[in-house]
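Quick one:
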Amino acid sequence: MIQTTAAVVGAGHAGLAMSRRLTERSIDHVVLERGEVANSWRTQRWPSLRLLTPNWQTRLPGHDYDGDHPDGFMPVAGVVATITRYARLVNAPVCTATTVHTVRATPQGFQIRANDDLLRARVVVLATGACNLPAIPAAACAVPASITTLTPLAYRDPGQLPDGGVLVIGASATGVQLAAEIHRSGRPVTLAASEHVRLPRTYRGRDIFWWLQATGLLAERYDQIDDLTRARHLPSPQLTGTRQATMTDLNTLAAQGVRIVGRLGRVIEALADHLHSFLGSRHR
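Output:
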């Protein structure tokens, strides 16, 4: 039985930031990671992805961006490298290849089963990420098995897709990025959009995130928000991080040739029979 004061589950940027803060307070702890450091960035992000926040915002406790392109947008490989360096910088006590199977409350705190080991900790911090479970609409159950479907966690590049049209469901940050990339590959793309948040990439010569920080919106506390439930359910903004800092929204996608339709409501048998012809050959 391993004893520790705190157990942090997940060695991404959130888990490592928590490790740094615990170390600052001399609190003994372990960081349990099912794969490697920055595992989700390594295995569940497509290679061409770039952060939609500028590089100067890529900062962690005790470490700010110190590269040559503060106004650029970091590719996913750069994110992996940054998080990996940070783990070494803070000397985080990471146990890699360690899968947490159960966490049970006890009178003294928590009992954790990780791989074949048992740990006891007074506190458990869950830092497993907010974007590692796909949100699949219930209508997906009615899509015929002959039509290929996948989520962004499994998407890598347009080359893995069969020939034919592609339907992208959801028009927040991920949806618009994938719609643009797949369209550039030469495939006809239809984008199903419901509620979305549009922001300009730049305003008066500065990136929109400069304005969000300067106006204090990024520092707004949860108890300062009028409708917290709605705020938590708002889609991520229609932004992409590109070398040219270009604008990406429904208007620009439509101008490029992406077909914009409304929210996907349901798929019934009669509609399913026509999906192939509607999209050309294949449906995502």
